[in-house]
Fold this sequence. Notes:
By secondary structure, this protein is of the alpha/beta class. The protein is about 40% helix and about 15% strand. It is built from eleven helices and 13 strands. The strands form four sheets. Strands 3-2-1-4-5-6-11 form a seven-stranded parallel sheet, with helices on both faces. The relative contact order is 0.15. The structure holds uridine-diphosphate-N-acetylglucosamine. Uridine-diphosphate-N-acetylglucosamine binds next to helix 7 and strand 8.
Amino acid sequence: xxxxxxxxxGAGYIGSHTxxxxxxxxxxxxxxxxxxxxxxxxxxxxxxxxxxxxxxIEADCADKEAMRKVFEAYDFxxxxxxxxxxxxxxxxxxxxxxxxxxxVSFVNILELMAEYGRSNVLFSSxxxxxxxxxxxxxxxxxERKPAxxxxxxxxxxxxxxxxxxxxxxxxxxxxxxxxxxxxxxxxSALIGELPRGVPNNLVPxxxxxxxxxxxxLSIFGDDYPTPDDSCLxxxxxxxxxxxxxxxxxxxxxxGRTKESYEVFNIGTGRPVSVFELVRGFENANNLKLNYRxxxxxxxxxxxxxxxxxxxxxxxxxxAERRLEDTLKAAWAWEKAVRGL
Length: 340
Ligand code: UD1
């Protein structure tokens, strides 16, 4: 059985945690990253946690000839593709940057996989494909909504590109994992999220506010039709999410897939409001956060959370970490980054 995996974007937030869990599960990992939105320190964190130095090649996945060298050098059978940009607002301002990076890199990898006879592809998708869903929780059969940003569009297009590619190539298998809201950090506080500039996402904004880097958290809207009037999301611990990649890779490596292309929701199945998350962070870490209510953020959906039955039953995976522990880990990581 080939236990080598290429992790494209393995120095990033989800990529680094997944690399740790793959190594812990006995996989031999090759990381490719160009550090466009990550830092080499995460590779050092991976080494400290696992005691293993992952193989590493600095390359841009949109550079096909650079990627060809990776395929020539290593005989991995499986690839996880994390190497994509993810800022919604930036994607609206710079659509071609997103279409180029997110799609060209993925097409390159798929072409090289077909050419070199590599079979298993795991794609990082997002709950963003469900948009403002009419029925909650969303299942994998819930219809996707037209994307409202170029970023979201690249997720939908990449899912379709993967589906069509593996259906046309009987030697290939593809799984798309639709992540809900990944948060937290490794409990060792050696790896975590490293947003550049002002964070877009809620938890990094919270931890930076607690650290005094940001003055005040804005809660985007308290007039939503939800129990406490703030938005509902499904916050999934980053280590639980990383473990989902290991079981999905196992499924393909062990030949247990039921169809050539499969999709799984990866969340907790539990909706949590913005106010609940803020209070949860304060209680878990015994501190008070400076926050105020602000206008709604354009493009936010009221609520989205996962039906995780398929992942539970088919992958044998479920979220295990308690939100309190996740929020403790998020704060421990921020403190480690800031030297607090
Ligand atoms: C966002 C993206 C989503 C993407 C995901 C990737 C938007 C509209 N959606 O998801 O497409 O897949 O990130 O990480 O950008 N909030 C505040 N104050 C803040 C930040 C956030 O109140 O400073 C609220 C938001 O209104 C939302 C919740 O916190 O209700 C979560 O926000 P965020 O972490 O940005 O995730 P999503 O918007 O769900």
